[in-house]
Predict the structure.
Amino acid sequence: MSIFGDNNENTMYSNTENKSQQYEFPVPNLQRPYVLAVTATVLIIIIQLLALLVNIRRNLLQSFRGDDSEIPRRQRSKYISYAIGNMHFAGYFIGYLIWGYIIIAIFTSILCICIEALIIYRNARFLESLLKAIIPTLLLIYFKTYLNKLLAQYVFLQHY
C-alpha cells in the first residue's frame, strides 16, 4: 500500500477501463471530408483558371484584330507604373491563386465536415429537409437563366 492508493495493477486497469467506457465520445474521421474538400477546391480553381484563360485569349484575339476597346488608354505620365505593374502581374497572379485556393479549401472543408457530421451522427433528416428546400429553388433559378438565354438568342435576337 502506498500513499496514492492500492498498487495492484489489476485494480488500475479495471479503473481505466471503466472510465474509458463511461466517457466514450465519438471522434469523427476527417479523412473523407478532407479528400472531398481538396477535390472540390481543385475543381473550382481549375474552372476559374479556365475562365480566366478564355478571357485572356478573347482579349488577345480582339487586340490582334485591332479592336482595342477594352484596353484602357495609356497616359505618358504613367509609363513607369505600367512597367512596374507588368513586372508584378505574374507574382500577384500566383499569390492570388494560392490565397484563393486556401480560402476555398477552408470553406469547402468546413462544409464537408458539417455535412458528414450531419449524416454520420444520424441527423440526416435535417440535412434532407434543408436540401428539399434549397434544391428546387436552385433548379428554378438555373432553368430561368437558361430559358432567358434561349429566348434572347433564338427569339429576340434571331437576325444577329
About this structure: DSSP finds four helices and no strands in the chain. The chain has a mean pLDDT of 78.
